[in-house]
Amino acid sequence: MTSTAAVTDTRARALRDLRISLTDRCNFRCTYCMPRHLFGSEHLFLPRAELLDFDEIERLSRLAAGLGVTKLRLTGGEPLLRRDLDVLVARLAAIEGIEDICLTTNGSLLTEQRARELRAAGINRVTLSLDAIDDELFKSINDVGYPASKVLAAVDNARAAGLGPVKVNCVLQRGVNEHQILPMAEHFRHTGVVLRFIEFMDVGTSNGWRMEQVVTAREIVDTIRAVHPITRAAANTPGETANRWHYDDGAGEIGIIASVSQPFCGGCTRARLSAIGELYTCLFGVHGRDIRGPMRAGATDAELTDLLAGIWRARDDRYSEIRGEQTASRRGKDADGRVEMSYIGG
Ligand code: SAM
Ligand code: SF4
Ligand code: SF4
Q: Is residue 152 predicted with pLDDT exceeding 60?
């Protein structure tokens, strides 16, 4: 049977967002994401022919829209490394049902002209990543010597192009950049930019994640509140990942993405498409489902729709909640509190 209506998973969660990784390459080597010892000159990145091409990305986005997806997020790797990105964006923006197209970038290639082209093509919003306002610290985190001041220039380019409200993501790691909470908050107060602090997550296997490295939402709020009173605000949309807070003095808004200390799996409506066309139904998925294979073997739209719908209907993921329950039940027994991969399903 062909499915063209909205689908829900085993926990009654609809499929609403599709995050599309456009490339596995990046011009940064953030120590917690693509550490140089694992992503050095020896590392084999995907050959171009392996990546989904624009026709394939557009086709899968259109079929996903038929199943209820309204929002696309273009990410990576570094998505701006993908040539002619504005051409792809224009094609995605023309898909019926797609209401919102966002981009997550490190900002290094977001010139004013590129920002304007992307805006004209149909990007609504941009999120830039910046883990420290201090140039030297940021250079050491991205490990390519890229200064924070240049990312701030990219933030300005995005704003000038009307790609707003611009968001800035800051991943916090204890012992690395938690002392940047206040300087970051103070830099973006009164600017209209929404700064979002993100708890460091145990994605992948390369970042050597430990629970004690996580700076929790509670600590972030307390740190800011001690200097600038803030009040919790209601969510903009159901299933929103960030907790929203307003400065009491009207200086703007900040967000906190508490994926570790306050998991939000219950409202998780996101699927992820890897650069080679595997569909993941959870950020912590170990195996994606190959969509590119059947697509390149000649599957019809109806067959691909059934494949996507079937994967979503079978979805039971709630990794962060399970890790949270496990951590709570172990409290006092294990200072680490880290859930074992063997428990979570490898
Ligand atoms: N290169 C682009 C960028 O940095 O914005 C897009 C891809 S990057 C993987 C997307 C976001 O994931 C960035 O904001 C990055 O800081 C965040 N990220 C990467 N590893 C993370 C982790 N272990 N925990 C939390 N966020 C992480
Ligand atoms: Fe590249 Fe983004 Fe990962 Fe940093 S966080 S290494 S910029 S993909
Ligand atoms: Fe969604 Fe998986 Fe993250 Fe839970 S752990 S919020 S299911 S991506």
A: yes
